[in-house]
Amino acid sequence: MKKLMKKAAALLLVTCMTMSLPIAQAKPMQAQAGTTEKASTMKQLAKIVSKHGVKRDAKFTVKYTGNSKDIDKMMNDQDFTFFTSTLALIDDPSTSDDADYLAGNLNLSDDYDVYATGKTIVFKLKYFETKKQTQYVNSKIPGILKKLGVKKLSNYDKVKKIHDYVCKLITYKDDYKKCSSMYSALKNGKGLCNSYALCMYKLLTEAGVPCKFVGGIAGTGRDSGGHAWNIVKLDGKWYYLDATWDDEGKNKISHDYFLKGTSDFDKADPSQKHTLDKPYRTGEFAKKFPIAKKAYKKGSNEDDTVDDEGNDSDYEYDDTTDDYDEGYDDYDDSYGWDDDYEYGE
Question: What pTM was computed for the model?
Answer without folding.
Answer: 0.81
